[in-house]
Amino acid sequence: MVNILQLFVENREFIFLIIVSIFLGIEVISNVPAVLHTPLMSGANAIHGVVIIGSIIIMLEAHPTNYLALILGFFAVVLGTLNVVGGFVVTNRMLEMFKKKEK
Amino acid sequence: MTELLGLSILELCYIAASITFILGLKMLSSPDKARKGNLIAAYGMGIAILATILFKEELTADKWLNYALILAGLIVGTVIGTRMALKVKMTAMPQMVSFFNGMGGACAAVISLVEFDHVMHGGTISSGMLVVILLGLIIGSVSFSGSIIAYGKLEGKIGDKALPAGQILNIILLLGMLGMAIFMANTAEPQAIYIYILLGVSLLYGVLFVMPIGGADMPVVISLLNSFTGMAAAFGGFLYGNQAMLTGGILVGSAGTILTVLMCKAMNRSLTNVIIGSFGGGGTAAADDG
C-alpha cells in the first residue's frame, strides 16, 4: 500500500498527463465516420510504435559488454521499427485506395 | 551547457512528436485530411526517434557497438517492414495491421524483460515501478500472441477452435497473472524464473483469448489488441519518464478503446458480445455477421 502511494506521489505529473491524454484520445476520434475505422486503427497502430524509443533507450544505456541486453535490445529495435514503418506505410496505402475510390 | 542544450532539444522534439500524434489522429478521423494526418504523425515519429538517438545520451566512442546495433536494427526493420507493407494485397490489410501490432507488443515485452534483468542484477527500483515493468510485459505479450493468432486466422492458417470451458480458464489465467505480478512486486528476492513463467502464461492467455473469436469479429479484436499495445507502450513511457511514449501510448490506448466500441456499434454488436459471445453459440453469431 505504501508502495502504491509512493508511486502516486512521485509520479503525480505523469498520472495527470495520463488522465488528460485519455480524455484527449477519446475526444479526438469521437467523430470518425465508419469508412475510416480501419485506416484509423492502422494509423493508431503506427503511432503506438513509439514504443521503439524505449528499445533505443535500452540500447543507449546498455553496457557495451552486456551482450544479453544488447541482443534483446537489437531485437526490440527491429520489432519496433517494423511496427512504425510497416504501420505508416500500410496506412498510407489504405488511404491511397480511398482516394481512388472517391474519384 | 552542451548537455543541457541537448536535453532541451530532446524534450522539445518529444513535445513536437506528441503534438503530431494528436494532430495525426485528429486528421485521420476526417476523410479529406486523413492521408496528410498519417504523414504528419510519421514525421513526428521520425523526429522523436532521431532525437532519442542523438541527444538522449552523450555520444561516446566506447559505445560504438550500441550505436551500430541501433542503426542495424533500424535498417533491418525498415527494409522488412516496407517490403511487407508494399507487397501485401489490399484485401489482406487487416491481418497486416494485426501483424505489425504484434511486433509493437513484442517490442514492449522485450523492453520489460531487459529492464527486469537490470533489476535482477542490482539495479535499484521501487516495487511500484516493478509493477509497471510487469504490466508492460503482460500486456505486451498478450498483445503479441493475440495479434499473431488474429493474423493467422485472417490468413486462414488457423481455424476457429474453442476449448471447453475456455472462458473460465481465461479468467483463471488472468487472475493468475495479476496475482503473480503482485507477488513478484512484493517479494524481496525476485527470481529470473518467475518472469519467464509470467511471460509464458501471458503468451498463452493471448492465444486463448483470440482463439475462439470468429473471423467476422476479428477487426474488432485487432482494434482492441491495438489499444492494448498502446497501453504497453505507455507503461514503457511511465518507466522511463518519457513523455512522447506516454502520450503516444495513452492516446492510442484510449482512442483505440473508443474505436473498438465504435466498430462494434457499426456492426450492431456489443463488445462483450464479441469477446464472450464466441463461447457457446458464438460460432453461429459470427457466421450470421459474415
TrEMBL record, chain A:
Keywords: Cell inner membrane, Cell membrane, Membrane, NAD, NADP, Translocase, Transmembrane, Transmembrane helix. Its EC number is 7.1.1.1. Coiled coil: none annotated. It catalyses: NAD(+) + NADPH + H(+)(in) = NADH + NADP(+) + H(+)(out). Signal peptide: none annotated. It is a multi-pass membrane protein. It is found in: Cell inner membrane. Residues 16-100 form the NAD(P) transhydrogenase alpha subunit C-terminal domain. Its main location: membrane. InterPro entries: NADP_transhyd_a_C. It comes from the Bacteria. The chain crosses the membrane at residues 14-36, 43-60, 66-91. The transhydrogenation between NADH and NADP is coupled to respiration and ATP hydrolysis and functions as a proton pump across the membrane. PANTHER family: NAD(P) TRANSHYDROGENASE, PROTON-TRANSLOCATING NAD(P)(+) TRANSHYDROGENASE. This is proton-translocating NAD(P)(+) transhydrogenase. It comes from Roseivirga thermotolerans. The gene is pntA.
